[in-house]
Amino acid sequence: MPQDDSQAAQGTAPSSYVYYRHKLPVRIMHWINVVALTIMFMSGLQIFNAHSALYWGKSSYDGTPPVLMITSRVSDKGVVTGYANVFGHEFNTTGVLGVAKSADGQVVRAAFPSWITIPGMKWLSMARAWHFFFAWIFVLNGIVFVLYSIFSRHLARDLVPTATDVKGIGASIKDHLRFRHPSGEAAKRYNVLQKLAYLIVIFVLLPLVILMGLAMSPMFDALFAGWVDLFGGRQAARTIHFVAAWLLVAFVLIHVFEVIISGLWNNLRSMITGRYRVSTQMRQESSHD
Amino acid sequence: MIDSTQSRRRFLARAAAAASALVLAGCDQLSRTEWFPRVLAVAEKWNRGAANAIVPRKAMAQEFAESDRSPQFRSNGTSNPGTDEYQAMVANGFAGYRLAVAGLVAKPMSFSLAELRALPDRTQITRHDCVEGWSAIAKWKGVKLSAILDAVQPAANAKYVMFHCADPMESDGTDFYYESVDLDDAYHAQTILAYDMNDAPLPVPNGAPLRLRVERQLGYKHAKYVTAIALVDSFDNVAGGKGGYWEDNGYQWYAGI
């Protein structure tokens, strides 16, 4: 995080000041990433709908059943039931997965419902077009971000945990579980769990999701014969791609949750204008709202 | 305080839901415009360029062991062309079948199945990756497309090899399936016109008597029921002009990814 351009409030004892928290390139790349990842996730689910089963191994048809299948069946009386089969265990998912109502009230049989896919209707070729276009934006943005983070020292200064950070992991976990957040000067730095979460997303999950995407390409599979088998085979790669995408969703949910409870507008403003208000008062015991 | 917080939360939740519904409807509208899909389609060129820059043009697709073969090789798309002409060919064991090769070539030729079987062949156990997402593995034996091309001698201006098929895609018997590949893929060592699958003559659901195997691309490029080949310098005057049946219906011509 950049320099401290403290602007003390006029008048008597200043109780807070504005701190320039996120530099412009980080803010721009953050929001590009939000758009690209959202579109890739939703178009990815539409692509998944074209064959709504996942397997472990080189092929889909090797004599073993899928590890995950989301589909629907119609009873003799015409009742449609949506269900998910996970490792052989079946769950009734009617209304959400397998069969759900679309925005215009129609009952649609599809693995993921229209409100979470791009395009909303069954349209594989268009979903692929969205997915690949935004894959390029996402990858180029990611490469620029990593290079920027290295050369601007954003990575070394703000993201890599310090020795003190590492010692404080236990305390940080306790704080997070009690929804307590650093205030004052400490709020100007990422906390250790935050740093680890960002590092795992940037250097493990996102590269993995890209690599597993490429592993599904028959052309990239030919680069080194059999490299895809290191990940369990092409169908395993498709499964990992799917799971990694949902792990990213889990990250985003936690991220947004933390943004909200640690000061939604202050956080949001700092990622838009860069400015973050730091309180200089002693922390007061109060719940978040 | 509690009330105002709750109503504020409810307002934010509703605003978020309304905004996302609006964005989604917007995405669907964009998908239906003329111009936006054309913007998205530039990614196809980038995909092809990146693949060709990173993967050597002669790199071989992975080949598998006998034990990797799928117990049943799935048939997708047409499982039987169903036309009178095709039924008659099936009835006499494809005895009258001929593969016509024409277009931008020095010597247009046609081949019977026996003649094709006499040309240089290749056997490979490969994975078939459907654009839908599934994969299946089978053993294919067929005539190398390069051997056929060597026989007919493509003209200098030939850029693509086009495959015309016996299966109509419309129920009224029109709109025959077709596909095309560039010359790099056409001359690739693993590009064959398969007449055997899993050590037996190609079954009807899998494209009898002859189907294309172009192993570094997705399944829809692997045209089944191939009856004619034409070398061309552009797709402009063929069907929808995009180089293939599914391409005419919005799918990417470059199916390496």
Explain what this protein looks like in three dimensions:
The complex is a heterodimer of chains A (289) and B (257). Chain A has a four-stranded antiparallel β-sheet. The two termini of chain A are 28 Å apart. Chain A is an alpha+beta fold. Chain A is 48% helix and 13% strand. Chain A has helices spanning 24-49, 124-151, 154-159, 163-167, 169-177, 192-215, 218-221, 234-261, 264-272, and strands at residues 16-20, 53-54, 68-74, 80-86, 89-92, 98-101, 107-110, 275-279. Chain B has 257 residues and is α+β, with helices and mostly antiparallel strands. Chain B has a five-stranded mixed β-sheet with strand order 2-1-10-5-6. In chain B, strands 3, 4, 7, 8 and 9 form a five-stranded antiparallel β-sheet that branches. In chain B, a hairpin with a 5-residue loop joins β1 (99-103) and β2. The longest helix of chain B has 31 residues, at 2-32. At the A-B interface, α1, α2, α7 and α8 of A face α1, α2, α3 and β4 of B.
Question: Could you outline the blueprint of secondary structure elements for this entry?
Answer:
The complex is a heterodimer of chains A (289) and B (257).
Chain A: E1 16-20, H1 24-49, E2 53-54, E3 68-74, E4 80-86, E5 89-92, E6 98-101, E7 107-110, H2 124-151, H3 154-159, H4 163-167, H5 169-177, H6 192-215, H7 218-221, H8 234-261, H9 264-272, E8 275-279
Antiparallel strand pairs in A: 1-8, 2-3, 3-4, 4-5, 6-7
Chain B: H1 2-32, H2 36-40, H3 42-54, H4 84-91, E1 99-103, E2 109-111, H5 113-118, E3 121-129, E4 135-144, H6 145-152, E5 160-168, E6 176-182, H7 183-186, E7 192-197, E8 200-201, E9 211-213, E10 226-232, H8 245-248
Nutshell version of this structure?
Chain A has 289 residues and is an alpha+beta fold. Chain A is built from 9 helices and 8 strands. In chain A, 48% of the residues lie in helices and 13% in strands.
Key structural traits:
heterodimer, A: 289 residues, 4-stranded antiparallel sheet, two-stranded antiparallel sheet, 9 helices, 8 strands, 48% helix, globular, B: 257 residues, alpha+beta, 5-stranded mixed sheet, 5-stranded antiparallel sheet, 8 helices, 10 strands
